[in-house]
Amino acid sequence: MTENIVIIAGGGIGGLATALTLHQIGVPCVVYESVREMRPLGVGINMQPNAVRELYDLGISEADLDRVGLPAREWALVGLNGNDIYSEPRGHLAGYNWPQYAVHRGHFHMLLHDKVVERMGPDVVRLGSRMTGYRNHSDGGVSAFVENANGTKSEARGALLIGADGIHSAIRAQMHPTQPPIHWGGAIMWRGTTVAKPIRSGSSFVGLGTHRQRMVFYPISHPDLQTGLATINWIAEVTMDNSEGWKQSGWFRQVHTDEFKHHFADWIWDWLDVPALIGQANTVFENPMIDRDPVPTWRDGAVALLGDAAHAMYPTGSNGGSQAIVDARILGAAIVERGVTPEALAAFDEKLCGPISQLILRNRGAGPFGLLNMVDERCGGTFDNIDDVIPPNERAEFMAGYKAAAGFAIDKLNSAPPTIPQGARARSTVLV
Fold it and tell me: Does 344 map to a domain?
């Protein structure tokens, strides 16, 4: 008899959202995470309304999210001379039933971790345990191979294995041994945070520049009541020649601003001083903008991929973390309907793998920032009246197409029933 338990490889956003979902529908699980200590790493990410809907249904409240970020009010693109290309309200202001949240990734991650421990107990998340592979059993179920931080190795046996172990996933590597290496398109990103005064709406996501060189920034904390200052997350990006591939020894390193701030030395307007924003940051990290080519399936028997292990994508659409949460919920819905079975994984794969693979490619083509590319191609990035460059209806159609592909088209999302009905439980299954 195989225990009706789900093994989760990876304790990131996708893995923890999966654990919370499984607990909600009455399915036992255990999370194996390679780090020895959970810490709030990273900078800012956005939780789109489709993900916030799922978080609310998981019992994560507005007050919880306000502790790790704030609701986004505006999304805007700006040309090289500081004139607006496109802007729109976000979240409730746009008519969604749920807000969009800009959050500190590390603090949000710790929020999910704390909810898992609070609801399921401290033993559910096993730190210092890295999944290295798996074996499907002919009589049902799966074994996962674990390397522990103390040097020992072990096997975990369960009904299903969910590979949520990120872009370097060992589960994906076994499932698709001939997959191409990580794809780098030539863009290098420098990420940091600076305490400064928010601009525009006070909670605006702003993209500035062209596809060759751009800046993205938005607040990830409520402003201080006395000073009016907030933590501003920013990403500076430059596209380089990538004909020889990535030459650094790692994918992520801390750098000094002197290494890149010269690219933005003259990006100064009366409403924004980019060199000052960069220069006042405490810690800055460099990493290439990378993704993985889509694969034809995320499933192998009793094993499925989820989150970045399934669909690592460029962050141009601000939906990588959001999609990981949606993945977890759609997986949960499949288990409610089909039980803790490979058939549930097949239904999950059928619903998401194809459409999200197309989203990977759309984000590789600049995602919603494609409007910056269009402006650059038509006028070099500077203009007096954007309507003379790209008519309003063309801009609106472009953005509507991206929202539909990313799963947060407003009418469809607002009218959709809950992914998992309140009180739903997984269908009972017995594995032999």
Answer: yes
